[in-house]
Amino acid sequence: MHRPIEDYALVGDEQTAALISRGGSVDWLCLPRFDSPACFSALLGDEENGHWRIAPKDADGDCARRSYRSGSLVLDTEWDTDDGSVRVTDFMPQRDQAPDLVRIVEGIRGRVTVHSELRLRFDYGSVVPWVRRVDGHRVAVAGPDSTWLRSEPDVHSWGKDFATHAEFTVEEGERVAFVLTWHPSHEERPALVDPYESLEHSLEDWRAWAGHCSYDGPHRDAVLRSLLTLKALTYAPTGGIVAAPTTSLPEEIGGVRNWDYRYCWLRDSTLTLGALLSAGYLEEARAWRDWLLRAAAGNPADLQIMYGLAGERRLPEQELHWLDGFRASRPVRTGNEAVRQLQLDVYGEVVDSLALARRSGLEAGPHAWQLQLALLDFLQEAWSEPDEGLWEVRGQRRHFVHSKVMAWVAVDRTVRSMEEDPRLPGDIDRLRKLRDTVHRDVCERGYDAERGTFTQYYGSRELDAALLLLPRAGFLPADDPRIVGTVDAVQRELSHEGLLRRYSTTGSEVDGLPGDEGAFLVCSFWLADALHMIGRSEEARELFERLLALRNDVGLLAEEYDPVAGHQLGNFPQAFSHIGLVNTAMTLFAHGPHGEAG
Known about the structure:
The protein has 598 residues and is α+β, with helices and mostly antiparallel strands. The protein has 14 helices and 28 strands. Helix 6 (345-359) packs antiparallel against helix 7 (366-382).
């Protein structure tokens, strides 16, 4: 039986990340990048698909306690036994060349026997490597992959059932460090890292970064943990931020809504940029903006909703038939076919991000403005077309209201930029007319006057939580009756035990998929923002407090939550959820987060 999703903690080196359970097992790790094949895949299968557990011998249950060291991504997990107590410290040093996973075992009290079981399985648990001893290391090789395992001091290890085992005892103050290093199998072994020096350097690096956080309001620890998580989900070589480090964690247990989130979504761009800027992280914001410019370059008609870590465009979707999925939630997928979809909202999100960056002093040179004008030329005609919408539905294309509003945002931000700086080239009169045309079209065709709410798409009676973004986008003032009515309707009709669904999946053919899903956490953060903007701040703060309580014991959130079963759902940890947490804290306690609505 799989552990609940919230049982996991994250360690990473800003190029990949590992998920470690409360039982001390690394059950997910892709090497060398977030989107590489996993060498530990027990999360989506079983232990035979790869894991690495370090815990007291004969300890079948969870640890006694665990926590991150303050201001860092260094994880301490502690067990209490009849013989004493022991701590395992897990982290991934920021790499110079090769990725390393370091696990340091330290005696706290008494004398404890500890067991390590390392079962490497390359290519998502499908390939058993050949393991041999070389110069005191256990070396595993299969195809392009190679790992080297060593301990300091050296401890006795042996092979059994295609796994590497080790057993040793530690007394108070004694330490044993394990280092697992990956490198391409055709290359020489990379330089060895000192595990204890690496620990000190990692703590210094993370805490120095955390020290730049400018937010000093209520719940600062939660905000900082979310920012540290976003930093951990950043692919440092390019500045791209993955939606999550996992694939195929289900939106419904036993269901088919299982997607690969190890890529960078344009839909997150404005909210991500706003969260980083509002917390004082200018360099990270610049790196994300630069990634965005590179990814969006090219023919505007070819703009994708997501890209790979370096801006790759081809992300072919396939199913891994040998993995049973998390709690039998199949299929397990890699790649993401939604990359082919038309989502008009991304044009607005890209232009809004560029406008926000410009206002924040992140000038990008004339090429960014030329790109922006090219996107607007495409939208001149494309805005009136149906699309798949923000949520990547796999049903037919429709005239989604949120998509139209974001097209309006693209035009509006461009007009405003030209008004603020008359030196910028472009036909401002044409753009003003286009802005008015889109606004009028949405108000006439996307608003249900009888019910007093905007709708999910033209002519429908369905609702969509993305409508809560209309006041933030500046489409209408927050006190406009149409906005207030929409907030009330969305809260009433999409509520799931007080949290929000993205849209209704009951009796609807919008997303073209069977089954259901949980409450979408970022949508509940959006509801808190909208409630605050329409003057219901106390209600907004109460909702925010409830959302904070849904985080796991180390402060992490998945994509969704099942309020009936009381478990997190979807890929984990989810950048969008943590972005929502940061921005809502800024909205409620720091006089507005970012951007235009703002």
